[in-house]
Amino acid sequence: MRDLAPIFKTLLKDKVAPLLLVLQVAVTFMVMVNAINMINERSKNMSRPIGVDEENSFYVLTNLQGEPDSLDVRLAEELLQLRALPGVKGVTPLSALPLEGFGRAMAINKEPGKEKAFEHGAYYATDEGVVDGLGLSLIAGENLSVNDSSTTFLDGHFVSTNVLITKALAQSLSPEDWRLAVGMTIYLFDTPQKVKGIVETMQGPWAWWYGVELNVISPVTEAYESIRYFVRVEEGKRDEVMQDFLAHLLKTPGRIIEVSESIKALKAKAYQEDRATSRLLLAVCVGLLVVTSLGIYGQARFSVNRRKRQIGTRRALGASKGQVMRFFMLENAVVSLTGLVIGFIAALSLSEQFSQHFGLTPVPLPYLLSGMAALFVLGQLSVSYPALQASRVEPAIATRSA
Predict the structure, then answer these.
(1) pLDDT tens across 127-144, in order?
(2) How many helices (H) and strands (E) are present in the chain, helices listed first?
(3) Which DSSP helix (H) or strand (E) runs through 374?
(4) What is the pLDDT of residues 85-109, one digit of tens each?
């Protein structure tokens, strides 16, 4: 500890280089822990289950032929044919798809006539076979039945019926016990909808939306000129069945296949920006760590070369190699810890700003502490070789002329 006094004296004498190094360590730490927190947030979002059978499902966006008043009959006939195809476990018409980027957002209220929405979520118009057809997990209440279902041309949310909701929405409606949401009546544009059952999850059409988990599933099929078919197949037969499914659809004159894609590919596409951002943030972290490590190494190497005669004098006065090496390691530790303390404060401030303006989770304390430990160790490793070189300076160098 007696080395601290000369260390502080040296640092105060040469203010610029140590100050720049302190700022470099502080900025690296501040950016690194917040970037890692953002990467972790995105990783959690990307790993969330969307609720449906992702591995064995695909969807097709196509058209229905016929007059508007006969589209419901045409849809019913086509569904019978498609569901009879080999390898098909279910074909479900949907007004939108999870993570598709297109859909219908709804104001959800517990009472009619409210100007301010109690909650916001996505609305799915489908049929009564949606649970088995998509592979959803019903965790409370009852499944939909044929008696609940109906068909309309558009705007199925104006039809009052029994509906399913997601667990996240149930928790919002009944925080004390989400199961009590079964039997409640919710209102979509003042149209009453009775909650018949609760599914574990079925994500909304927008991955970035705060209400991605707060959704309503209604057994009101919308027979419109454009229709989405969600197709669930037997395990391992997705690609094969998709080809047969599309071939069958194209037998109809005037058929247009706008999109055909697996649900797994749809999910990957929905999060491609998040993956790209995570890779960029990771590259920034690695770059900052490399630059900081080189900065510490360069400053230590410069300091050793400049103070060789001083080191030689200490060695001539009896300082051991270990004491010389420990001096430079301690000197770097003082600079690094100063930068880390400043960076800790700055990281908390930046994290708070991100939380307020972008809704990100504040950086957890373990991230901050782990980041400090990792950066401190990196600094000590970076200075270890220059410190070793300093310990090898011979005492005789003190007697040489400059």
Answers:
(1) 999 999 999 999 999 999
(2) 11, 13
(3) helix 365-391
(4) 999 999 999 999 999 998 999 899 9
Give the C-alpha separation, 283 to 290, whole Å. 11
Q: State the Cα–Cα distance between residues 384 and 296, nearest whole angstrom.
A: 10
Which tens digit of pLDDT belongs to each residue from 185-216? Answer: 999 988 999 999 999 999 999 998 888 999 99
Q: What is the 3-state secondary structure (H, E, C) of 150-208?
A: EEECCCHHHCCCEEEEEHHHHHHHCCCCHHHHCCCEEEECCEEEEEEEEECCCCCCCCC
Contacts of residue 82, Cβ cutoff 8 Å, sequence gap at least 6: 88, 91, 229, 231, 245, 248, 249
Residue 402 pLDDT grade (very low, low, confident, very high; cuts 50, 70, 90): very low
**CA gap 25, 362 in Å, rounded:** 21
How far from 332 is each of 8, 12, 13, 31, CA to CA, in Å?
11, 14, 15, 21
Token pair in block for residue 36: 């890692």
Are 233 and 241 in contact by the 8 Å Cβ rule? The answer is yes
Indicate the SS3 state at residue 213: coil
Longest Cα separation, the chain: 105
Mean pLDDT of the chain: 88
* SS3 of residue 268 by DSSP: helix
Question: CA 176, CA 179: separation in Å to the nearest integer?
Answer: 9
Q: What is the DSSP letter of 149?
A: -
Q: Please name the residues in contact with 246: beta carbons below 8 A apart, sequence gap of 6 or more.
A: 60, 257, 260
Q: What is the dihedral of CA 341, 342, 347, 348, to 10 degrees?
A: 70
In this predicted structure, the answer to whether residue 13 has a pLDDT above a threshold of 70 is no
